[in-house]
Amino acid sequence: MDKLKQAIIDQGVVVSDQVLKLDALLNHQVDPQLTMEMGRQFADLFRSEHVTRVVTVESSGISIAFATAYELGVPLVFARRKKSLPAESEVLCERVPSFTKGMVTDLLISKEFLKENDRILFIDDIIANGDAARGLIRIVERSGATLIGAGIVVEKCFQPGANALRESGIRLESLAKIASLEGGKIVFAD
Ligand code: 5GP
Predict the structure, then answer these.
(1) Helix (H/G/I), strand (E/B), else coil: 105
(2) At what angle do helices 32-46 and 62-72 cross, to 10 degrees?
(3) pLDDT tens-digit map of 93-146
(4) Which residue ranges make up each domain of the chain?
(5) Are 98 and 59 in contact (CB under 8 A)?
(6) Residues making up the binding site
(7) pTM, entire model
(8) CATH code for residues 2-188
(9) Separation of 103 CA from ligand 1 center, angstroms?
(10) Which of 18, 59, 126, 156, when mutated, tests ligand 1's pocket best, judged by the most ligand atoms within 8 Å of its CB?
(11) Nearest CA to ligand 1 atom 10
(12) Whose CA is nearest to atom 22 of ligand 1?
């Protein structure tokens, strides 16, 4: 995705050796055209897997997951981040550390929207240590549904999340791989 890489170069802000601010294209403002293209890309990568639902975490994953779900013609379900659903027994909940907020948050999905016969594609904006992804995957496992893979817009290769998931047997595809942010410079892995 040359267009994505160019947008990251043009609009990304290196906050530290660990953190890349992508507010202008992912986390605050959304570029609809680029987002739809990314959704098409993920849909093409996973189309043969007969996905029945796309799952993400609110809020930054929603736009990309929406575009992917639209292309695949299936519903999008987003995990909420706090206890905002009434009957707890009807909700699957996992507590995960938040990379950017430095605190723990609860991810929740109503059992109504994850069924045993579902084939789930997980979509998210950025992967760092993989905690959000692991929490979401645990929720999918507990629902009895099948996780067919994960599509991530930006993989920070210098942090362990993406490769740990791959090593556990999960198919993880990312659209941009960042090898380093050292010295304020964005270096892509490919
Ligand atoms: P993880 O759970 O993999 O450690 O972190 C994933 C979540 O933290 C992502 O959904 C993303 O919102 C946020 N995050 C992690 N690293 C970065 C980063 O470098 N920049 C931004 N903007 N968000 C990040």
Answers:
(1) strand
(2) 50
(3) 999 998 887 889 999 999 999 999 999 999 999 999 999 999 999 999 999 999
(4) 2-188
(5) no
(6) 20, 27, 128-132, 156
(7) 0.96
(8) 3.40.50.2020
(9) 13
(10) 126
(11) 126
(12) 21
